[in-house]
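seq as requested:
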Amino acid sequence: QVQLVESGGGSVQAGGSLRLSCVAYGSTGSSNCMAWFRQAPGKEREGVAYISPGGNTYYAGSVKGRFTISQDSTKNTVYLQMNSLKPEDSATYYCMIRPGSSWCPSSQHAYNYWGQGTQVTVSS
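struct tokens:
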């Protein structure tokens, strides 16, 4: 069983920055695809950023150049640095894990576990 715990959300003005953290507890193994998804009210959950076990990163077009995903394997932690935030970035952000996989699919349905989410609100 795996438990993911996100933190770091909050309220900022447009142009500001936030850093989200996600700690993975339990039997995660050493080779996992980690991802950040987000869901705004009335919208489907969408992938934002992905990082493979080898450290390859992938981003949604809407956040490329503004968001950075990284991981600290020694701490079982993945981060999402969000800069130049826009009001349309407002959503609940979820950390998700696909254990034992070097491939990071874009669909949320490919991920086995996710956290409770952390709210990000960006005001104009």
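The longest strand covers residues 18-26.
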